[in-house]
Structures are given as C-alpha cells and as structure tokens.
Write a structure and sequence with these properties.
Blueprint (H helix, E strand, L loop, with lengths): L5 E6 L2 E6 L2 E5 L14 H24 L7 E8 L6 E9 L9 H9 L2 H7 L4 E6 L6 E6 L1
Helix pairs in contact: 1-2
C-alpha cells in the first residue's frame, strides 16, 4: 500500500495535504470565499497532469543528453458547460529548433507514458469511508 496523504483544515477555506515531508496548501479564491493563499485543488489536479508530462519529457532528454533549453509544455482543456468537468485535455510539447529530428516521435511517446494521465485513463475506483473519531466501525462506500 502507498504512503497515506493526511488532510487537515488550518482555517477558512484552506486545506493542507501532508505528503511525507511535504505540505501542499490549497485554497479558494476570494471570489469563492477563500483567501487565495494557494491554488484550488482542481487547479492543482490539472497542474499534476502537466507536471507529470513535463517530468517525462525532461527525463527523456536527460537520458539522451539532449539540452532542455527552450523545451516547454502548455496544457489546455475543454469543459462541458453542463457538468463543468473537463471533456478533453491537450498537452502541447514545445521543442527548441535544436531538438534532434530523430527523437521527435519518441519524446511524444515518452510524454504519453505520464503516470498521472495513465491513471486517469485507467479510471480507478474510489472507496470513500466514514470513520467516526474514537470508533472502530468504518462504513465503506464504493464510488465509480
């Protein structure tokens, strides 16, 4: 099993996620009742997709000794106006002009291997449980 992520609520609309030695803060913008002290959880989710893709692109280049100056990614997404959920996510990989022609298709395949993207595509099940403080009983709910 993986290391648990612990969530706490330090005040206002802020939510802190503790991942080992790291703490990630999310908040809502002032227009939604928060203080804007950090990105929203959904924005952080989207950033994790782009960051993962970037990590794979960077790793590809490092493994082959390819300079990464000028390498970047841009992620955009389309939203269903009724559900307000993304219907498509696009990642544009921007290569510098000096990027070797022979590796262009291969770096795209590497970015396609992003673990976050693959996890979303695999549609994992979610198990949400209710646990009352001090109680031994846990009531599971399987959410698809």
């Amino acid at each position: 099993m993986s290391q648990p992520i612990q969530i706490s609520f330090p005040g206002g609309k802020r939510v802190e996620a503790r991942l080992g030695e790291y703490t990630v803060l999310t908040d809502l913008p002032a227009s939604a009742g928060g203080e804007g002290a950090g990105p929203g959880a959904f924005d952080l989710f989207l950033a994790s997709i782009a960051s993962c893709a970037g990590t794979y692109a960077l790793g590809f280049c490092h493994a082959r000794g390819i300079a990464t100056d000028g390498l970047s990614l841009t992620q955009t997404y389309e939203v269903n106006p009724e559900s307000h959920l993304p219907t498509s996510i696009s990642i544009a990989l921007h290569l510098p002009t000096s990027f070797p022609e022979k590796y262009r298709d291969a770096i795209l395949r590497a970015v396609e291997g992003c673990k976050v993207k693959k996890t979303i595509a695999a549609a994992p099940t979610f198990n949400v449980q209710l646990s009352m403080e001090g109680a031994d009983n846990v009531s599971p709910s399987h959410v698809q």
